[in-house]
Design a protein that fits this description.
Mean pLDDT: 76
Low-confidence stretches: 59-63, 165-172, 331-341, 508-529
Number of helices: 15
Helix content: 10-25%
Structural class: alpha+beta
Shape: globular
Radius of gyration: 30 Å
Number of domains: 4
Length: about 525
């Protein structure tokens, strides 16, 4: 591995911001609790904590992927290597950043899987006659209830004594289940007679209990989400017709085209696709050994990366962003934007009109470009302190936050001689208050842009802009629902992500590093392959 990546292996210890907010797995209680328990492991920050993700396996056997059900067998080599890395001696490893060798150790801390694969990875049964839900018990409770099971064997062809549980699990693809329930698809919906019987049995939601009819059939009262034929057609129209910003809808067909490009011999498409995919994976792995000066899949800039900009003498010119699309340039301009352009009116700047601009992690396009695309990137929102009056006769202004919603009509870049910096402006049609804005009973903001006349003060700095997109309201003609977006590769850290590790160590979850000892139940785990 290159020296840059070897140095990055220590980032969590040397460069991480340690302010109590959870920005990295090292900030989590799991990481810190492990460090308290195993101080010898934590002493070397180059030791590795691993996570095991098992997406795409097929424990329910609804696809012809036999290897998925034998994952416990394939795990045997991993178990052997983990035991070797966990050993106190570790494995001798070369650190290219310090030009030294050290004994590296590793531990598997996290697993990521759906609930069905949980059984294959852990040895717990989550389906069939003795399905259980391990998360309902603490570690001590599980080990206590397993006391007396002298030998637990893993593998498909072995049989273990019945476990002392008979709990039910509820797992299914969430999106598939929601759509199936909304559309009332046979075999997919979760709102059926059996579920209504369950409500009746536990004596809740009496308005949804099944009603027996004289002819022997059963009537299921409609739920709040039940849709008739017209509602279902409208639902499908919205999914099919509305546009969303770049990155909000994965282009599946584009990726399928990539996979198909691997096929050189149509008699063996599956093998060639697998071979091409593995080749990409090998190249991605080998690129870890390249210098950081070489752009690879691991260090390339994100799609909406905007230049960080440079400090300027005037704050107005210190702005980031980069244009996209074609450019048209003009000279000797005059724009009615009183505040933003006072500095540059006498500089005779060069003006360029851009079709798109990336700033603040958002990709913006003008409305004319959007009309030709399958995505919507012209929606903009600005929150600003504004002086307002209750009426024309009122002389006492009130300063308050006002939200402006708009659609970008032009993107203008002023190339000025002042400090050799540029200014980028968005000209947009906007709505803030009045009869063109309302809030519905579900607290969604709705806007009406039909017949909206441009305002003379319709310019904002690109650096002030955030992005929204508008969904057509098919019930109220002319109105659109506002949906706020977040930048790509961005996560909003709020106060809820603050983790008090010391409080966690004193909680019921952990009795402290010196007291958190495993209960010795003498359970021997045997793998049979």
């Amino acid at each position: 591995m290159s020296s840059e990546y070897a140095e990055a292996m220590r980032w969590h210890e040397d460069s991480r911001t340690k302010d109590g907010f959870m920005r990295h797995p090292a900030d989590s209680p799991a990481w810190t609790t492990f460090d308290h328990k195993y101080t010898d492991f934590a002493m070397n920050p180059r030791n590795v904590r691993l996570g095991l993700a098992s997406d795409g396996f097929n424990p329910i056997v609804n696809m012809s992927l036999s290897h998925s059900n034998n994952i416990d067998v394939y795990m045997q080599p991993l178990i052997d290597e983990l035991k070797e890395f966990w050993d106190t001696n570790g494995v001798e490893t070369y650190d290219s950043s310090t030009k030294t060798t050290f004994k590296m150790r590793a531990v598997l801390v996290w697993t990521i899987s759906d609930f069905s694969v949980y059984a294959n990875l852990s040895g717990w049964s989550t389906k069939g006659e003795f399905e259980i839900q391990p998360g309902c018990l603490t570690e001590e409770e599980v080990l206590y209830q397993l006391k007396g099971f002298d030998q637990i064997k893993f593998g498909k062809l072995v049989k273990n004594p019945p476990l002392p549980y008979n709990w039910k699990k509820r797992k299914k693809n969430v999106c598939e289940s929601i759509v199936g329930m909304l559309m009332n698809i046979d075999g997919k919906t979760k709102d059926h007679l059996k579920s209504r019987r369950d409500l009746e049995e536990i004596k809740i939601r009496g308005d949804l209990h099944p009603v027996p009819l004289p002819n022997g059939k059963v009537y299921l009262p409609p739920a709040c989400f039940s849709m008739d034929k017209n509602d279902k057609e409208l639902f499908c129209q919205i999914l099919r017709g509305d546009k969303v910003p770049d990155g909000y809808a994965a282009n599946v067909s584009r990726y399928l085209g990539t996979l198909k490009s691997y096929v050189r011999n149509k008699s063996k498409p599956d093998g060639l696709i697998a071979k091409g995919y593995l080749a990409d994976e090998f190249l991605a792995f080998c690129s870890l050994y390249l210098s950081s000066d070489v752009e690879t899949i691991h260090n390339k800039k994100s799609r909406n990366y905007d230049d960080v900009g440079k400090e300027a003498v005037l704050p107005l010119f210190s702005m980031s962003g980069r244009p996209i699309g074609s450019t048209r340039c003009h000279y000797d301009i005059y724009i009615q934007c009183r505040e933003h352009l006072k500095i540059v009116r006498d500089e005779n700047p060069k003006l360029c009109k851009q079709q798109g601009f990336i700033v603040n992690g958002y990709c913006f396009h003008i409305k004319d470009v959007e009309n030709k695309r399958k995505t919507q990137n012209s929606g903009v929102i600005l929150e600003a302190l504004t002086n307002s009056f209750s009426s024309t006769r009122d002389n006492n202004s009130i300063t308050r936050d006002v939200t402006y919603y708009g659609v970008i009509k032009e993107i203008i870049e002023l190339q000025c001689s002042v400090d050799q910096h540029n200014i980028v402006l968005f000209r947009y049609d906007w709505i803030s208050t009045g009869s063109r804005k309302k809030v519905d009973e579900n607290w969604f903001t709705l806007l009406n842009f039909v017949g909206l006349k441009p305002d003379k003060e319709s310019f904002i700095l690109a650096s002030q802009a955030e992005q929204v997109f508008y969904v057509k309201d098919h019930v109220n003609n002319g109105w659109k629902v506002v949906i706020k977006t977040t930048p790509r590769d961005y996560f909003d850290m709020d106060e809820q992500t603050h983790v008090d590790v010391e409080a966690h160590l004193q909680s019921e979850t952990s009795t402290g590093p010196e007291n958190d000892e495993y209960i010795d139940m003498d359970i021997e785990m045997v793998w049979e392959i």
